[in-house]
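Handout, section B. The chain below has 221 residues.
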Amino acid sequence: MLKFRHSLISVFLLLSSSQGFTLLPPAASPLILPKTLLNCAPPPTSAPSPTVSDVAIPTNLPSAKNMDYVPLATMLATGQLAEADQFTRDALIELAGSREAGRTFVYFTEVKNIPETDLATIERLWLKFSGGKFGYSVQRKIWLRQKEDFEKFCRKIGWSTMDGEVERKLKWFGASEFIYDVGKAPEGHLPLTSALRGTALFKNLMTHPLWEGEDWREEPE
């Protein structure tokens, strides 16, 4: 089974990874966190809560691309939400074929390439370990309730804030303003999606074919 090398590079707001993970050979350690060589701030980190031994980590995590999602499950189960968020973005880059195309971000037309099997696995993990508070499907419900208005959506899930009388999006670059805490963050706050190149990527994630049915919610046997 292929493993991830977790990336530590990201960019300003609603997050894009400027550098993704590398697939390691089977014998390698699944999570080696390299020091960044670029002159930019690393992504935030979360203090883990329960130990792995205290939490049942699922291991039957289907993937059409032979991805290993046990690291993601472990991060979510132990409260390492910032790391899980970065892992999720990196996974989408790989699944969409963006890395193969030589890019470190997902172009909106590539969202359709993300296998339903993998997106469903990622989504079930976010739902499971957030008590149904975080996940793309949660965001989709809120987005639809806001009549697909991205600005209203951002206000609802806490991606916007007021600086005096000026409304702006939360900052990620430098000291993150996002909330990596299930108890404190608004519903739908995570995972984050890059709006650096516009909202087309987010909209295509919200209209992925997976969401047309409910079968994806069923846990694999």
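Note. Helices lie at 70-77, 81-95, 116-130, 136-145, 150-157, 200-206. Compare this with the example in section A.
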